[in-house]
Amino acid sequence: DCDGTCLTCSAGGSSGCESCTGTRYLDSDTNQCVIGTDCPSDTYPKDSDNTCADCDGTCLTCSTSGPNACESCTGVRYFDSDTSRCVVGTDCPSDTYPKD
Q1: What is each CA distance from 33 to 28, 43, 82, 85, 88, in whole angstroms?
Q2: What is the distance between the alpha carbons of residues 96 and 89, in angstroms, rounded to a whole number?
Q3: pLDDT averaged over the chain?
Q4: pLDDT value at position 62?
Q5: If you average pLDDT over residues 18-32, what whole number do you get?
Q6: How many angstroms separate the first and last alpha carbons of the chain?
Q7: Residues 46 and 25: beta-carbon distance below 8 Å
Q8: pLDDT of residue 33
Q9: Which of 8, 5, 27 is nearest to 18 (CA)?
Q10: What string of DSSP letters covers 25-81?
Q11: What CA–CA distances, in Å, run from 82 to 18, 42, 56, 79, 92?
């Protein structure tokens, strides 16, 4: 039998989920259905298919899909709070500078 958080599953228990019920999201790393705040940090809870979906490649963390939904940045990119984008230092707005 599927775990109570699973809509469909490939195995019993909480780590055999293939899709999730209600307000739970599938974490594809663990095959568990988690609440949105428990999606891995480089993903966001995607309501349309109840999955923890990958952030844009420039984002370390994000609120939704796309490059304008970053909350923090990967590598040598800097967070532009005006656009919620992660930019390279040379693309920082003219009245700002890259701050490490």
Answers
A1: 9, 14, 34, 29, 35
A2: 10
A3: 90
A4: 96
A5: 94
A6: 50
A7: yes
A8: 96
A9: 8
A10: EEETTTTEEEEGGGS-TTEEEETTTTEEEEPPTTEEEESSSSTT-EEEE-TT-EEET
A11: 38, 21, 17, 9, 10
At position 85, the amino acid (one-letter code) is R
| C-alpha–C-alpha distance, residues 1 and 16, integer Å | 10
- Over residues 5-24, mean pLDDT: 91
Token pair belonging to 8: 């469909």
Is residue 25 very low, low, confident or very high in pLDDT (cuts 50, 70, 90)? very high
- Sort residue 23 into left (φ over 0), alpha (ψ -120 to 50) or beta: alpha
Task: Show the tokens assigned to 26.
Answer: 């599938």
Q: For residue 47, how many other CB atoms are within 10 A of its CB?
A: 12
Residue 92 has a pLDDT of 65
Q: Tokens 């304008």 sit at which residue?
A: 68
What is the per-residue pLDDT for 61? 96
